[in-house]
Predict the 3D structure of the following.
Amino acid sequence: MVLRMTTAEQSPTPGFLVYRLATKWQAAVDRAVSPFGITHAQYSVLASLRGMTRGGRRPSQREVADRLGLDPVFVSKLVRTLEQNGLVERNDHPSDARAFALGLTDAGIRTIDPAIKVVLALQDELTAPLGGLSSKATAQFVGTVQKLLAATIPDHHTPEGRQP
């Protein structure tokens, strides 16, 4: 019996490859940050907050969600857990009564700063096939991914590809 590969097996789709890369990357970051007692998603919130709060800024949960491209409800749950773990503090937002202003606690800073160093080293390792984080190929890859993320994804098609 001879098995033949289908065209899809020979040439994976861009969506499949993005999914595989994202899954591989997330699993690697999860393993790298687990010694700090956080998950990849929690790392993303903490690292974003670290960058956003430099200079005293206190972003809202919505701003963090927008930066990460995550659902605000999911970010709210992550922040609640991080707050319970003593890594994040939520205070009333100074200009929006419906929002919380977020900040890192001292424990949050002590957790995220070394975690960021570990993840940067991991990213250099993961981008090694492109020449590492500072390579031209990695810069081109980042630019391409940013274009894809900025592109509008149509949501008006049914699974069969027809308009409703």
